[in-house]
Amino acid sequence: MKSKRRDFLKVTGLAGLGLAGGNLLKGSGPEPCYENKPELNVLSKQLEKSHVQRFNMSGFAAPKLDIVRVGIIGLGNRGPNHMLRLSRIEGVKIKAICELRPERAAEVKKMLDGTDHNPEVYTGDPEAWKKLCEREDLDLVIITTPWEQHATQAVYAMNHGKHAATEVVAASTVEECWQIVETSERTRKHCMMMSNYHYNFFQLLTLNMARKGFFGDVVHGECAYIDNKMKNNFSKTMYWDMWWLKMYANYKGNIYPVHGLGPVSSIMNINRGDKFDFLVSVECNDFQMQQRAKELAATDDFYKQFADKEYRGNINTSIIRTTNGRTIMLQHDATSPTPHTVIHGIYGTKGSALEYPLPPRLSKGDGWVSPEEYKTIAEEYTPEIAKRNLGNDILLSWRLIDCLRNGFPLDQDVYDAASWSSILPLSFWSAKNHSNPIDIPDFTAGSYKVNKPNMDINLERTGNTGIKLEKTDKLVS
Ligand SMILES: NC(=O)c1ccc[n+]([C@@H]2O[C@H](COP(=O)([O-])OP(=O)(O)OC[C@H]3O[C@@H](n4cnc5c(N)ncnc54)[C@H](O)[C@@H]3O)[C@@H](O)[C@H]2O)c1
């Protein structure tokens, strides 16, 4: 991690932009400029102006791969799930896995006993993942470490000739967003953020409906990831090194934007006809986390390190306006005791859709349709991919491999990864600066005007890769 800043300056020549004095080193929390200094809006503009698109990665199809040779970094909760799903997909060879903790690495390697996969294990060193990326015999590196590490690892993987697929978010600073864009364009390697909520049934259904004109012009979207993670975040064993609790203590703003925002962005053709223009972000105070930390610290010294932190507020609400004049309301809350809520609301000139609270509903302009009519409309508009009746995670892994094997553009590209991830630092800045508006960079450098939608949800040109099915496939994480 330690050479990140030097690497970045070398790659983009940002030293000339007055960044030399800034702290771009990461690992223990956000950069000072995201907290309360007004410079981020200026810095972000400078970065945007200095970028010259070398190659348009939108619609980019890499050469077909019959066998996709995979390496995976980070084997906590999420990494092994990806690994086990990939192990069941035709044409995948898991060649290498990397995990900081040796005992966890051994445990996860054992999960592949009895399969055709026998990966080499890299462990015991926080930079062992570099050795994995340097191997000659890998095509794809899957990154499932905590998100402050994703961009560094994705850039390193691409610079060593691999496609990179990261968990959400792909980058946690505006500089890192540009860094993944610049590297992907220069190396012509995919950098995909694995947005699994794109593959939920209602999200796929409404994308197909939007494409077929059911909603008319989509004018507004609502989205949110709301899930009470208090127990997980304060658990000593749930996440490596209490990293999620540290994120809630170090950041403000929407630190988990992708589950809601990704699918709504695809419906609005963001980066493919439209783009984000600016956002404003407002956040309530923290009403629970510091109190919980203090309560725990009263009887357990371990929690004293967390007792005086100024936590991110319970609910962050950000509003994005797009260049074509649409709006998106985006929320995140992981603290309040609210039931799991992934809002997906689409509002158009002819119709609307809303999921959460359940059941999902549709309107043609005159109230929500009856459950019977919902069923008829859903049957008419269900895209081919959703008819496979699998869970969102297995569809995500399958699409990624199937596109690589068919030499087809991936469902999400580096511009999606950068623009959706940029909401994290930009909403932080706005929330800390009296909800002032801040521009969202155009990571496509103007090519959004000509880029075309490419998610092949009706499987017209892809979909021939096999999967070994299991009972759990219908479970959605
Ligand atoms: N898309 C989804 O639905 C979803 C769900 C859960 C988590 N996630 C994302 O997945 C990522 C991982 O989350 P998690 O719940 O698995 O966290 P986790 O703490 O369980 O796992 C992270 C793992 O990375 C390892 N690690 C840390 N630094 C490392 C390094 N330098 N080299 C090698 N290994 C290292 C840790 O030891 C740990 O095992 C996060 O970015 C999170 O946002 C996404």
SSE map:
Blueprint lengths: L3 H9 L26 H12 L17 E6 L4 H9 L5 E8 L2 H9 L9 E4 L4 H7 L5 E4 L6 H10 L3 E4 L7 H14 L3 E3 L7 H11 L6 E9 L3 H5 L8 H8 L7 H10 L8 E8 L5 H11 L4 H4 L8 E7 L4 E7 L10 E5 L3 E4 L5 E3 L7 H11 L2 H4 L4 H15 L7 H19 L5 E2 L38
Parallel strand pairs: 1-2, 1-4, 2-3, 4-5, 5-6, 7-10
Antiparallel strand pairs: 7-11, 8-9, 8-14, 9-10, 11-12, 12-13
The site of nicotinamide-adenine-dinucleotide has 26 residues, from helix 3 and strand 2.
Give the helix tally: 17
By CATH, the topology of the domain at 197-386 and 413-449 is Dihydrodipicolinate Reductase, domain 2
Secondary structure category: alpha/beta
Q: Can you tell me the residue ranges where pLDDT is under 50 for at least 5 consecutive residues? A: 1-28
Task: Count all strands and give the number.
Answer: 14
Q: In CATH terms, what is the architecture of the domain at 197-386 and 413-449?
A: 2-Layer Sandwich
Under CATH, the homologous superfamily of the domain at 197-386 and 413-449 reads Dihydrodipicolinate Reductase, domain 2
Model description:
The protein is of the alpha/beta class and 477 residues long. The protein has a domain at 197-386 and 413-449: 2-Layer Sandwich (Dihydrodipicolinate Reductase, domain 2), CATH 3.30.360. Helices cover 35% and strands 16% of the residues. The protein has helices at 4-12, 39-50, 78-86, 102-110, 128-134, 150-159, 174-187, 201-211, 230-234, 243-250, 258-267, 289-299, 304-307, 371-381, 384-387, 392-406, 414-432, and strands at residues 68-73, 92-99, 120-123, 140-143, 163-166, 191-193, 218-226, 276-283, 316-322, 327-333, 344-348, 352-355, 361-363, 438-439. Strands 13-12-11-7-10-9-8-14 form an 8-stranded mixed beta sheet. It has a 6-stranded parallel beta sheet with strand order 3-2-1-4-5-6, sandwiched between helices. Helix 7 runs antiparallel to helix 17 (414-432) and helix 8 packs parallel to helix 11 (258-267). The longest helix has 19 residues, at 414-432. It binds nicotinamide-adenine-dinucleotide (NAD). Nicotinamide-adenine-dinucleotide binds at residues 73-79, 98-101, 104, 126, 129, 144-147, 149, 167-168, 196, 239-240, 243, 477.
